[in-house]
Amino acid sequence: MLTGTMTGGGRLLSISQPAITRLIRDLELELKLTLFRRDKTRITPTREARELYREVERHFVSTERIREAALAIRQYNAGQIRVAAILALSVSCTPKAVARFASSYPNMVISVHSGASIDIIDLVLNGSVDVGFVAIPPGHDQLDHEDVPSSEVVCLLPRCHPLAGKKVIHPEDLHRQDFVALGPSSLMRLELNALLQLAGSEPRVRVESLFSSTVTAYVNRGLGIAVVDPLAAALADPETTVVRAFRPTIKYTLSVVYPPRAARSPPLEDFVNVFLQALREEIDFTQALIEQS
Question: In Å, what is the CA distance from 281 to each residue of 38, 75, 96, 158, 285?
Answer without folding.
Answer: 58, 34, 10, 24, 6
